[in-house]
Each structure stands twice: as structure tokens, then as C-alpha cells.
Amino acid sequence: MKYFPKIKGKNLYLSPINPDDYELYTKWINDLSTSIPLGGATMTYSLMKEKELLEKISREENMFAIIDTASNEAIGNCSLFNLNQIHGTAELGIFLGAAESRGKGYGSEAIELLLNYGFKMLNLHNIKLGVFSFNERGISCYEKCGFKEFGRRREAFRINGRYFDEVHMDILEQDFDPDFVIEELP
């Protein structure tokens, strides 16, 4: 696949999404270990549906494939969306579709790259996200990157007969302390 490094890190880089990756994304999004934390376990994605979705989001701003530098292969996706340039706010979304890439620090590195981009290039001030309370690995990663919980929507997600909270977290520009800086920034 063709990828174009937009934001480079130590072990990975963020590239514009390649719609030709639709078969890989279809595999990822139909895997319950990926779709349950995203809240999409009840949805079924065919190759054609995922291809249409990737073609659509590849035209949008601030949507990135997460690429492992060593293998030059996509391992996930991240984005900044619902940007409000007047107030300097946005929402962050991320998933690692390649199960073998989880637990290796790639998620936190991708988030740091995205936060660097958001705060230093897009001039954002506040970036928020939502995560389900059962996703302890995700919450730990977000806290490691500087996010703080600011509220919960109680018992807002039901799966397997159990209810879980939707946890709302955010980070302010002044609270962001990256382990590294984007090398292309002056």
C-alpha cells in the first residue's frame, strides 16, 4: 500500500488514509476485540461498505492511518474531528486494529503525534474523547498522555447483559507535555 508520512514519530508515522486498505479495515472492524471498545459490535461491515466509508473519510481533514515505521504497514487509525477553530476544540478518536500491535506503546505514540499536530499546527486548545469504562487499557493510555476525566454518562453502553459508563476525558494545550516533538516543526 502507499502511505505518505505526514507526522513522524519514533516507531510510527501518521499518513493520510489509503482507501485501498478497505479489506484490512474490514477485517479489523469485524473483529470483536476492535469493535466492542469502539461501540460498533452490533454493526456488520462488508467489504463494499468499508470501501465506501474509507473513500468518504479519506477526503476529510485530520483522518490518519497509523503506520508502523519498521514494516511500513497500517496498524490502526486516528483522527481529530468536530473541530471548532473559533473555540479551539476538537475530539480525538483512535483504534489499533492489528491486535499484535496492542500493548506496545503505539497507541500512546500515535496520540502524542496527533496532540502535537492538534495543538501546534491546528492551534487547538482543548481536545476531548469518550471511552467506555470497561476499556481500562484505553483509559490508562489516555491518562498517560495527559487526559483527565471530566465526567461520565452512567450506564450508557450495554453489552453482554451488562451496563458500562461512557467516560469523558479531555486535555488542555498547557497540560500537554510530549515525550518528543514533531521533528518538522520549527
Task: Describe the structure in your own words.
There is one protein chain. With 186 residues, the protein is of the alpha+beta class. Helix content is 27%, strand content 34%. The protein contains five helices and eight strands. The protein has helices at 22-29, 32-38, 47-57, 106-121, 136-144; strands at 7-8, 12-16, 63-68, 73-84, 89-96, 126-132, 148-159, 162-172. Strands 1-2-3-4-5-6-8-7 form an eight-stranded mixed β-sheet, with helices on both faces. It is globular and about 40 Å long. The protein starts with 6 loop residues before the first strand and ends in a 14-residue tail after the last strand. The mean pLDDT is 92.
Short description:
With 186 residues, the protein is of the alpha+beta class. It is 27% helix and 34% strand.
Helix content: 25-40%
Element order: H for helix, E for strand: EEHHHEEEHEHEE
Query: What is the first-to-last residue Cα distance?
Result: 30 Å
Report on the biggest sheet.
8 strands, mixed
- The whole-angstrom Rg is 16 Å
Topology readout:
Layout: E1 7-8, E2 12-16, H1 22-29, H2 32-38, H3 47-57, E3 63-68, E4 73-84, E5 89-96, H4 106-121, E6 126-132, H5 136-144, E7 148-159, E8 162-172
Parallel strand pairs: 5-6
Antiparallel strand pairs: 1-2, 2-3, 3-4, 4-5, 6-8, 7-8
Helix pairs in contact: 1-3
